[in-house]
Design a protein that fits this description.
Order of helices and strands: HHEEEHEEEEEEEEEHHEEHHEEEEHEEHH
Helix content: 10-25%
Keywords: Hydrolase, Protease
Strand order of the largest sheet: 1-2-3-6-5-4
Protein name: Serine protease
Pfam families: Trypsin_2 (PF13365)
Oligomer: single chain
Shape: elongated
Distance between the termini: 53 Å
Radius of gyration: 25 Å
GO molecular function: peptidase activity
Number of strands: 20
Length: 391
């Protein structure tokens, strides 16, 4: 039955008679929201231009870039966020010719209702995903779709549209009540649960852009910043724009960075990656960038430091030296190439990383060894030294 319903909705949205199709109208209200290296879907909800997107798209950034399917671009400012519900609201700072989408706050998404989701992809046309509501969102609960959009929905924020072209909800990774706190499968937050947020933002745009952006703890609603891993008031772990994929391994990394006096949330650059600047005791006065990464299975902790760029000549003796160093002088560390950059790596099982080592000593030794290799490779081969993420 689900396939027949979806097929009927698809025909209606694609053809729609003599007038422009319902889907064609809806597409004009959807944008791509880009924040740093992250991007997601947004859609215009209010006449003043306010765009609804996901908090995991914008993270802790206040300034974003908006792009339409037709190629228009504009700057945007994040004016409100709700990290626990995975919501963010963006005000365009210039006109981009995008119209607000009609909203359907009532009735809520209904069991068996066929819907369409529009998903923005940077530099590409909007992706259309059709599904059926398989769990209703009643009593403040989130709804669910079949099939689950999963990774197709990216970082969320996509509008869920009914057969009449009205938005009935937004794709979110907020936790469904009664589920494990780490269960962040993508669900539908009904538009009716956004009413209070939208009313507060339905004001002239001139004053809206001057509001102070505040992140609030989901446990006690006290304000927090990216500089904290835990709420200073209630002590719970604070959300991060990157979803937790391996909570146990992530805890090991967080504790390791804390031993160095580093806040993991502030250093996080990806779902399984953190980047810090570290200076070896007694080593070069200039710090080196260390990337801390978990493997895809969450079983290994990998530390990497950039050393030099591949020299323009004398490649054979250069490679021979790298191989010799791996056999004789690098110990538990390894030299390897990442593109045209030589990196020094240290890998350890998560289970042993925190229990068998002085974490600070591991970082100090890695960076000190990196300083030594960097100097040798630059002096012998004229290789360009590297210390940060410019590579």
């Amino acid at each position: 039955m689900s396939s027949r319903i979806a097929s009927s909705l698809g025909e209606l949205m694609q053809h729609g008679g003599a007038e422009e199709s319902v889907l064609g109208v809806a597409r004009r209200g959807v944008v791509t929201v880009t924040s740093g290296t992250s991007s997601g879907t947004g859609w215009v909800a209010l006449g003043n231009g306010v765009i609804v997107t996901s908090w995991r798209t914008v993270g802790f950034q206040a300034e974003v870039t908006l792009s339409t399917e037709e190629g228009r671009r504009a700057a945007g400012r994040v004016v409100a966020v709700d990290a626990e519900r995975d919501l963010a609201f963006v005000l365009p700072l210039e006109a981009i010719g995008v119209v607000p989408l009609p909203l359907r706050a009532d009735p809520l998404p209904r069991l068996g209702e066929a819907v369409t989701t529009l998903i923005a992809a940077p530099g590409d046309t909007l992706v259309t995903a059709m599904a059926v509501v398989c769990a209703e969102g009643r009593g403040g609960e989130l709804a669910a779709l079949d099939p689950d959009l999963g990774v197709r929905a990216g970082r969320g924020g996509s509008p869920v549209i009914d057969a009449a072209g009205r938005v009935i909800g937004v794709i979110t990774t907020a936790r469904r009540s009664g589920r494990d706190p780490l269960d962040r499968s993508r669900c539908v937050l009904p538009v009716g649960l956004l009413s209070r947020d939208l009313r507060a933002l339905d004001v002239p745009a001139e004053g809206l852009g001057e509001r102070t952006l505040i992140h609030r703890c989901p446990g006690c609603t006290e304000a927090f910043s990216a500089d904290n891993d835990r709420c200073e008031s209630c002590g719970i772990l604070l959300p991060h724009a990157y979803e937790s994929e391996s909570p146990g391994a992530e805890r090991v990394v967080r504790d390791a960075l804390a031993a160095l006096g580093i806040v993991a949330n502030k250093a996080r650059v990806g779902p399984r990656a953190w980047r810090i600047q570290h200076r070896a005791l007694g080593g070069d006065a200039t710090p080196s960038e260390v990337t801390v990464r978990l493997d895809s299975a969450g079983l290994q902790v990998i530390l990497r430091v950039p050393l030099v760029r591949l020299p323009s000549a004398n490649h054979e003796p250069f490679y021979r030296l790298l191989l010799t160093a791996n056999d004789q002088t690098s110990g538990v560390c390894r030299l390897s190439l990442a593109g045209d950059v030589v990196v020094l790596s240290f890998s350890e099982p998560v289970s042993a990383f925190a229990s068998e080592h002085d974490v600070a000593a591991v970082f100090h030794d890695l960076v000190r060894l990196a300083d030594q290799y960097r100097k040798v490779l630059a002096e012998l081969f004229g290789a360009e030294p590297l210390r940060d993420g410019s590579w």
